[in-house]
Every structure is written in C-alpha cells, then in structure tokens.
Design goal:
- The structure is a single chain.
- The protein is mainly alpha-helical.
- It is built from twelve helices and two strands; from the N terminus they run αααββααααααααα.
C-alpha cells in the first residue's frame, strides 16, 4: 500500500475516533446544561470552542445526533432537543436475518416475560368492550387452536389486543417488533423441538380468566399458555 494511502487511512481512523468522542462529549454537555425537549442547543461555533475541535467535526457529530432523533432543526430556533422515537430507531436493526443467534433467543424470551407481567395493567384498564372484542377474536380461531404451538395471525390478533388494553403505547410498539422475530425464531430451528405438545390454557381460557379471575390467576394462566415455548428454552 502506498504511503499516501496509509496516511489517508490513518487520518480517517483518527477523525472517526474524534467524532465518536465529540458525539459523547456533546451529549454530556447538553446534559450538564440541563436542556429539555424543545430547548435550543448552542450554535456550532460555540460548541466548537467549548469542545476544542473544528466545526467540521462538530457538524458530523451533530448529524449523528439528528440520525438518532436526539435533535432536529427548527425554523428560527436552529437545532433543538427532541424526544427520540426509540422504537423507530430500534426497528431499523430489529431484523432477524442480521441478528446473532444469542440475541434472537433473548428476544424470544423477552416476549414471554412481558406477557406474563402485563396482568395488573390489563385488570386496571380493561373495559367491557375490550372483553367483547377478545371473544370475537377467539371465535375466529379454529377449534384446535389451543393445541397449536404458534400461529402468527392468531398471536397478532389476540396478543396485540392485550397490549392495546394495557394502555402502554411504548410496550405496544415493542410488541410489534417482537412478534416477527418471535415467529422467525420459532420456525428457524434455533430452539429445540417439542416432541409432544402439552394441552395448555387457550386464548379463550385467558379471556374467561380476565372476566372471572384475578391478576394472579391470569399470570398463572398466561404462564401455562406459554408453557410449550418455555419448554423449548429449558431442558425438561
């Protein structure tokens, strides 16, 4: 490799490293100034002087913050602090084809844990109209649905409605990202296969528990509903 090419490569590495440091420094600086959503951030020249780097480096670091949704440009205000769309950013990388096997398995586990833990929110916020909709959803499932390990359409319809009932929009967005990955892991061969499926609490049974039972009973019912998935994670 020619000497000039080596120098150019080193220069690129040094610049990248500097931008990384400035990016972290900018975030720390904005935190120190206790800026909140909607507040304007200092101008490029002020940031350049405060951090002791060129405006070119500042500009590249700011571009990264914009891409992360931490800042945006406003007319007459310049760059301002924003509330980032965390799941919009995460969704760009939540592709099962580019995630390693360990991460995929852990995402599979997250979905199981979330759904067992939603019981109290459901009982706090569920309405009669929600119960009616849930019964309509399970009425469209085939009679043997409770013996199926996983059906993506049934899962999206039923469990998606449960997430909606919780009233937690952040968790609902997360669920939309989790289910496709869950479906991929289920069909990928990453988990051991169940030679014999156990009969478990069905979607209809879970609705009945919501109507007549308690949060603790629902947690136990959901755990039983997911038993065949847990059996694929643990050695049993």
């Amino acid at each position: 490799m020619a000497t000039s090419a080596i120098k150019d490569s080193l220069k690129e590495l040094d610049t990248s490293s500097l931008v990384d440091k400035v990016e972290a420094g900018l975030v720390e600086l904005l935190q120190q100034q206790k800026l909140k959503v909607g507040d304007s951030i200092p101008k490029e020249i002020e940031l350049s002087q405060a951090l002791g780097v060129s405006r070119t480096v500042i500009r590249e670091a700011l571009l990264r913050l914009r891409m992360m949704g931490l800042i945006e440009s406003k007319k007459k205000k310049g760059a301002v602090i924003t509330s980032p769309d965390l799941f919009g950013i995460m969704n760009k990388s939540m592709n099962p084809h580019i995630l390693d096997q360990e991460t995929l398995k852990e995402i599979f586990e997250i979905r199981l844990v979330l759904e067992i833990g939603m019981a109290d929110l459901l009982y706090l916020r569920i309405k009669p109209a929600d119960i009616e909709q849930l019964y309509k959803i399970v009425a469209n499932e085939p009679p043997a649905a409770q013996y199926h390990l996983f059906n993506i359409e049934h899962e999206i319809a039923f469990h998606g409605k449960l997430y909606e009932i919780t009233g937690n929009n952040t968790m609902k967005k997360f669920q939309k990202m989790l289910l496709p990955v869950f479906d991929y892991v289920h069909n990928s061969g990453l988990l051991k296969k169940q030679p014999l499926l156990k009969t478990f609490v069905s979607h209809k049974d879970l609705v009945d528990i919501l109507v007549k039972g308690t949060p603790d009973e629902f947690r136990r019912g959901m755990r039983n509903h997911l038993e065949n998935h847990f059996a694929r994670i643990f050695d049993r």
